[in-house]
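for the writeup, i need someone to sanity check this before i put it in the appendix. the sequnce is what the collaborator sent (i think, or maybe the updated version? ugh). structure was predicted straight from it, no edits. if anything looks off just tell me and ill rerun, i have time this weekend
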Amino acid sequence: MRRGTTNGNARGNTADRTRRRAYLFRTYQSDYGPGTCRCYRCGEVLTRATLTIDRIVPGCKGGRYVQKNIRPACAQCNSQTGSRCRRN
């Protein structure tokens, strides 16, 4: 019998999210050194505390949290794009 709760959401568990953040910092590293990258829209320098992950293909269109479909974004830019699949 399994106890407790499971984290079966699309974002995965803590280890999955940590690996994705590390991938973004390696791939999109800024000139400010390790542990920083830039927002894909506005160019703001992001740290571990300010990085949010944006999906290129939104989840409502089948986009998943995989390396080919994620990019770094600041919170403001990520919330501006929001869900592009709004229902009427």
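The mean pLDDT is 85. The first helix runs from residue 14 to 27.
thx in advance!!
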